[in-house]
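Exercise 7 asks you to align residues with tokens for two separate proteins.
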Amino acid sequence: VDDLLEEIRKQAKKKERVLVTTLTKRMAEDLTEYYADLGVRVKYLHSDIDTLDRIEIIRELRLGKFDVLIGINLLREGLDLPEVSLVAILDADKEGFLRSAKSLIQTFGRAARNVNGRVVLYADQMTGSMDQAILETNRRRKIQEEYNKAHGITPQTIKKSVKNILASIYESDYFTVPTVSDVQEEYGLTRDIPKAVLKLKEEMKRAASRLEFERAAEIRDRIQKLEELELKIG
């Protein structure tokens, strides 16, 4: 924990973000509280947090409003955060689903979007899953380096704009209400709007549970369009 604290402070000085994965919600909360008391700008993320709050937390991390995000399975494949240059895996030697070779490889990938990206595994012993994940990652890196050299490519941090993924939550002076024909084309008859809204809300929750936050935000936009139209034709 103290070693990780020093690593976090180094990253914060460089204005780069850190992801920390734990095995339990309690540990994520306790570690967040401990680091916060030491002056670290940190938040935690887990499934009990409201969907829209989770989206906002991800957005704030990318914007640099805080430096460290702690969670359990937030590092799975699909979470694209190019501002993150350090991924720390606690209890890396605790064999199981979240510390399997496949999960570790996916977690390593969260640091691959940044040219300075690196991963630190905290463990008391080397496990088969850790060894396999490290070997596979090194194999992939070698292939990538050879490809880059052959094609004269210099690795750079991915540049990805921080979209206002919560824009759909707020009222906009320039919000365009879709026409009846628009909705008929996309969703069918207008009398099916309530059914479509319920279906989309379920889809949004599933996307958020998989930590596909931008997908969840897109679905939220579609829900708002339908709700606006329902009021219009009401």
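Second protein for Exercise 7:
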Amino acid sequence: MIARALKRATLALLLGLIAGWFVTLRPVLAERDAVGARVHALDQRLEAHRRTSAGLADQRERLGAMRNAIRQHPMRLPDRPDESGLIGRITALTADSAIRLVDIAPGGTGESPRYRHRDITVRMEGPWDALMRLLARIDETTRAVALTGLELDRAKNGDGRRWLTLGLHLRGYWQPGPTDNIATTAGNGDSGWILTAGAVEAHTVAPSLRRDPFHPATRVTRVERRDIAYLGRITRGDAQWALIRDADGQLHRRRTGDPVPGLGRLTRIRPRAITVESAVSDGSDRRHIVRRHSNTDGRGD
């Protein structure tokens, strides 16, 4: 009996202890569950922030590339003048070609509400093709620089060479101070008036600029002969026009100095004939007299 009573008392005590543990641990367990839920929510927020951070890094990289492209764009004005860079570029280009640099004269500085500019005059001597090549290379390797004047004449060197004297009036523009936060970034300075990339080879000079106008070509440029008819002239006050019909039947009204289809340039208008000078480059006298068409009225007007 005593042993059975002790056994019952022990079981009752164990059950009481277990019940007490559950009662005591219930708030802790509830708090643990709540903390677990908060941890899960924080994990989700952390993952979202990581994705956002990765997207921001990609956007920063793209923004940096855009800033660099805008800063180096030829149409964007630099934030400071670059006279030394421009002079150095011209000096280097003339040193690489058959051109002699005569003089470089800095000019005045102008100012407007949005930008400033500085003038530079460069004088050089050389053959025609080398000078045209130099102009092309200056245009392709500089930015914010405009050609405001050009003087071309025969060089007075007296050594028999067919050299020309070229005077360039250049104007460089800049905009002092950034207008926004994309003007300058650390480690990436403004390139001034010189493009950081790109070079021009000799063959990029346009074919129309390769012939020296001071020395006529040896070949004769022949014009295509076409049948035209002089129908008469139109007068209005002191002005007069020649009425011409080309081989295709099209009517043209031309004044003195205008081109005539297939022949050249109209030099004289008379009641019964017109005089046309052919477009030849050998300096010879090629004039054509086109009589008035026989089926028109002979009065001349």
